[in-house]
Amino acid sequence: MVKAYKQEHVYKHPWERVSAASWRKFADPENKRILSHILEVDTLNRKLDADTGKLHTTRALTIHAPGPWFLHRIIGQDICHCVESTVVDGKSRSMQLTTKNITLKKFIEVEERIRYDPHPENPLAWTVCSQETSIRIKPLSALASMAEKVEQKCAEKFMQNSVKGREVMERICRYMEAEAAPV
């Protein structure tokens, strides 16, 4: 069974500011308090494709593993490592992020896709964020009947963390807007 959900959010900030805020989301000490499930973020690779002008970045994320405490006890760890692949196309003003777990895959598979694009109704001032997340608990003989409940708990936690992420993005955008304002 797979638990999947989609969310959409409109930032009342231009795409350039929102995409820049996305890069700063994990770096600010204030954000680390809010996004406490993110333990570490390291850039593994960054490449600008000269032919297309697209920026390709790969980052490693270390997070508190999703799921209830009893699942952590069964699998023996509460840390999960993920890989985030990002493609930024400045020409079309699009930023796409895909994050997948690379550890705990025999127990859970999570894939999150986020896309930032100019809002169709106000492309110069607003940005639409589309997020799709899928969570699949692999049946364990002892937990087969609980897999759906565990997926639901994981999905709820991801949705809570998504709200925190949007709050952080909004705060960074407001800060960047204030920095850019004429004095």
TrEMBL record:
Residues 2-181 form the PRELI/MSF1 domain. One of its GO terms (cellular component) is mitochondrial intermembrane space. It comes from the Eukaryota. This is PRELI/MSF1 domain-containing protein. It comes from Brassica carinata (Ethiopian mustard).
